[in-house]
Amino acid sequence: MIHIRLRSKYDGVVEGVTEAIMEKLTPELRKTILQVKFEVPQGVSIPGIEIYHAIFTGGVQSYQELEEWRKKSPLTDSLEWRP
Predict the structure, then answer these.
(1) Would you tell me the crossing angle of helices 63-72 and 48-58 to the nearest 10 degrees?
(2) What is the pTM of this model?
(3) Which of 39, 19, 15 has the alpha carbon at shortest distance from 54?
(4) Would the pLDDT of 9 be above 80?
(5) Can you say how many angstroms the Cα of residue 42 is from the centroid of all Cα atoms in its chain?
């Protein structure tokens, strides 16, 4: 759970990203997202938004591809990204 101050620059951001993801989500993308999240080694922390970014934008299909994608295409502003 996160707490966001009303009328801050973050107000509504998470909801907007979630809505955009849900609009573009297909059963295949959902399966890939869940598989890649499952493949992330224990103790390694990768924000979900980076996983979504790599899969939606870069066509990433595995954890190994995710690691390569993150090196070449880092998500520098997660507040602005939408699928």
Answers:
(1) 90
(2) 0.82
(3) 39
(4) no
(5) 18
- What's the average model confidence in pLDDT over 30-38? 98
Residues 17-27: tens digit of each pLDDT: 889 999 999 99
Residues near 58 by beta carbon (within 8 Å), at least 6 away in sequence = 65, 69, 73
Instruction: Give the pLDDT score at 2.
Output: 66
Q: For the range 44-50, what are the long-range contacts, defined as Cβ-Cβ under 8 Å and sequence gap of 24 or more? A: 46/70, 47/78, 49/17, 49/75, 49/78, 49/81, 50/75, 50/78
